Amino acid sequence: MAEKVAESNGITVVTGVIGVDAHVTGNWVVNQSLRAAGINVVALGVCVPQEEFVDAAIESHADAIWVTSLYGHARLDCDGLRERCQEGGLTKILLYVGGMLVVGRQDWELVSKDFEKLGFNRAYPPNTLPEMALEDLRADVTEQRQQTKVKDGSPSAPKETGSN
Ligand code: B12
Question: What is d(CA 76, CA 117) in angstroms, rounded to the nearest whole number?
Answer without folding.
Answer: 13
